[in-house]
Known about the structure:
The complex is a heterodimer.
Chain A: E1 2-7, E2 10-15, H1 22-29, E3 48-51, E4 54-57, E5 70-72, H2 86-94, H3 103-116, H4 122-128, H5 140-149
Parallel strand pairs in A: 1-5
Antiparallel strand pairs in A: 1-2, 3-4, 3-5
Chain B: H1 14-18, E1 34-40, E2 46-52, H2 54-57, E3 62-67, E4 80-81, E5 90-91, E6 97-103, H3 106-115, E7 117-122, H4 129-133, E8 148-149, E9 161-167, H5 171-180, E10 183-191, E11 203-209, E12 212-217, H6 222-233, E13 240-244, H7 260-270, E14 274-277, H8 280-286, E15 293-301, E16 307-319, H9 325-328, H10 331-337, E17 344-353, H11 367-385, H12 389-396, E18 402-403, E19 409-410, H13 415-426, H14 429-432, E20 443-453, E21 460-466, E22 472-475, H15 485-498, E23 505-507, H16 525-553, E24 560-563, E25 566-569, E26 577-578, H17 579-589, E27 594-599, E28 623-633, E29 640-650, H18 657-677, E30 682-683, E31 686-687, E32 707-711, H19 733-745, H20 756-762
Parallel strand pairs in B: 1-14, 12-13, 16-17, 22-23, 29-32
Antiparallel strand pairs in B: 1-6, 2-5, 2-7, 3-6, 4-8, 9-17, 10-15, 11-12, 11-14, 15-16, 18-19, 20-28, 21-22, 21-27, 24-25, 25-26, 28-29, 30-31
Amino acid sequence: VELTMTVNGVPRTLEVRPHATLLSVLREDLGLTGTKEGCDEGECGACTVLVNGEAVDSCLQAALAVSGSDVRTVEGLARSGAALAPLQRAFVDAGGVQCGFCTPGFLMTLAAFLEENPTPTDDEIREAIAGNICRCTGYSQIVEAVLASSGGAR
Amino acid sequence: MRTVIGEPVARTDGETKVRGEAVYSVDHAEPGMLHAKLLRSPVPAGVIRKLDVARAAGMPGVRAVATADDAPDCIGGWILKDQRLFAKDVVRFEGEPIAAVAADTLEEAKAALVAIELEIEPTPVVGDIESALAKNAPLVHPDWQSYEPNGPADHPRYGNVAGEMIADPDPEAVAAAFAQAALIVEDEYRAPRQYQAYLEPKSALARYENGRYIVHTAHQYPFNVRDRVAQLLGVRPSDVRVIGHHIGGGFGAKLDAALEPYAALLARLTGRPVKLVNDRVEDLLTCTCRENAIVRIRTALAADGRILGRELECLMDNGAYSGEMPVLTSVPLHVLGQVYRPGATRIVSKLVYTHTAPTGAFRGVGGLYLYFAIERHMDHCARELGLDRREFRLQNLLSDGDTVLNGQVLEDAGILREAFDRIEEVAPWAKVTKRKTTADGKLRGVGLVAATWLTNPMPGSVTLKLNEDGTVGLVTAATDNGSGAVTMGVTQIVAAELGIRPDDVVLLMPDTDSAAYDSGSQGSRTTHIVGRAAAKAATEVRQRILEVASELLEAASTDLELADGQVRVKGDPHSGVPLETVALTATFKTGPITGTGSYATPLPDFNPACASGLLFPVFPTPSYHVHFAEVEVDPVTGQVAVVRYIVAQEVGKAINPDGVRGQIQGGVAQGLGYALYENIQIRDGRYGERTLEQYRLPLAVDVPNVEFVLLEHPEPQGPYGARGVAEPPIVPVAAAVGNAVSDAIGRPLNRLPITPDDVLAALGRVGPSTPAH
């Protein structure tokens, strides 16, 4: 089946299996392996991408259902070789990254969240990322990265 | 000269990770690669009556189907050789591999699994520790006597007991202590399995080339994978090459081989690269979880609060095969005696086979439930004695130079007292124990506990090469499991020793062909051991640099220093020659500059006669910890909120304070999961929790910002004085929280995790959903 969508600003048309998930299309057909599969059941948030600006679990998202949509993945936050986006920079500087496997999902969840709430509080950030699991950091340095990048000093 | 030691330098792999560029094991692919799946046992125990793969082998796209008949006739294991690659004749746990399929696509591999004809006749299930130890219990391994150790010496084992440690050096003294006791306090504690729940499921990609197995995997201990693949496939270790990738978390579960030998066998059978990835359910069902355990403690007390004697029994669930576990039967000996003086002591620990998935290492291993038991019991003892809980602890606390149960001398155990004092400064005991309820009717409680932990002593190695552009290549099989031990700690040590920026240290991913042996990311060893090896290697490199620069600058090498990527005359920043020039000169004149360093901690003296079955005799390079927890318990819902958490930790020297903080915050979060949420309930050998929805992990809304106080008494053997840091912050958490919740509700909670149902049952508010305890 043919699927047309815009991925990180580039129009793409490709053949996909009818039941393919957006996650498998991104990772296997487009080679965008920055989006991670942690559980394949919509529980961990590692596969989060933006569809028309909204954060979705790409492992549960039928690829054909996003036909014609604008999809953004972690690779779209900053062009390869170009400077990091402020939120990415803040994750690195604040120690919000350890193993990093959950990081792309956090970044995409937060990218959508910060569009709606550009200057969130600590509690609002924690609520926003309650659907993303991080097993390494204990979350504090992730929350601080968001506060730092959104100018919400502690 | 400015040094990067002690600075919050960003990890060198941070940028590649936030860009989504970092290649993890699950991301690695090769041209012509096949996809594999394992057929796993649907039952915990049974006899294989029929296994016919003929139909599956003829399915579309299928390139190979392998069973025990196709694998070399090998039996292996880390400590005890008790496991085959595939179940043969019998199955011993739900999820045990029976067959493997490699096909052109994952869908074809999955379709072929369904076509394998498998009939298993279920047999009685030995589902838990107590039924395994019961008289006339069926044996999980009727052939246990035929098994051989994977080392020079066997250890005590019999029937369903896969390992036993007994420390009972003076039975008469123990009897006398209990005979003269003013008070005897006795308790039993229980803890469940805990799933490591790393975000990247286990995976492997293997290729067979020129008679060798090339294995790609994200692994904490590449050399252990090499050895296990070799053992199970019947080849020499050097016939296996293991190449590491970014690791999406491990926490101990990626210390032994898992999928790698299956991918390797299928690669040989098909002549193609083969990739094998766990889905989350099979990952959870077959992961080497922290073992469930039962701990019984009995203490003889003098009326004034002195501990006269102690007996401890620890029963650990091994699961169906042993892995690393026999070594961990020694942990109770260390934990019982390394914080409080235990008096005359008898300790028995037993590792018990059951028809469940093999258990294994998880950050802090048995320390979590052992400290939970001991510290819950300390609170109980204090209450029975009518003493203040903190005073009772201080009264029995070790001090400098005390000899502990294995004969080891803890020269600096007095740091424990200092850690209590530092907590007192920020949370005065008289004050924090005063408030018993909150304005909105929540019950308040506090817990204060201590722990001593080790830094794993096992060997590691580093080779450094000065590149012609003045950057430095770092070659090591040490792995960064996410902790930053390599991308912060070791990298900063190399940068500091050679006067370059951490970003100019170019790290090679672990490769067992190019790097010398390393013992893996376990027991907080990497910064301490590999950091010291790196400092040695850097000393060699530095010496060569100075020799070359001394000619270029026409100055004595003793007058030179390395800083800002230059060699210069001390005190004259304008005199410098760039490292690039030194490197180019050396490379084409006398040959490239390299240096190598190796290190393993010399084991401290101990008394080998202190116990039988002592496979893990010492806790070297100790670190000391005091944790404080404050909770609020809702008496209506039973919900527990951890409102304040403080860690006082001896780190020797914080090479990177942000990194240390990340380990403390993250370790405490995992400990809170163990204390309050995470649970695998096993019935008749089957897991009740099978997905991340059912297995409740701590989320951002559950975890408080952890306050911490770092104590820095440099450890002479460590690089810049650093001790192991990363593992221990998880260790005392369940103890601190367990004591705080029990204090809040005024009732003992002696089973983990402490759920709202448990709290309500203890308060007598509703009927318990689990048996009362």
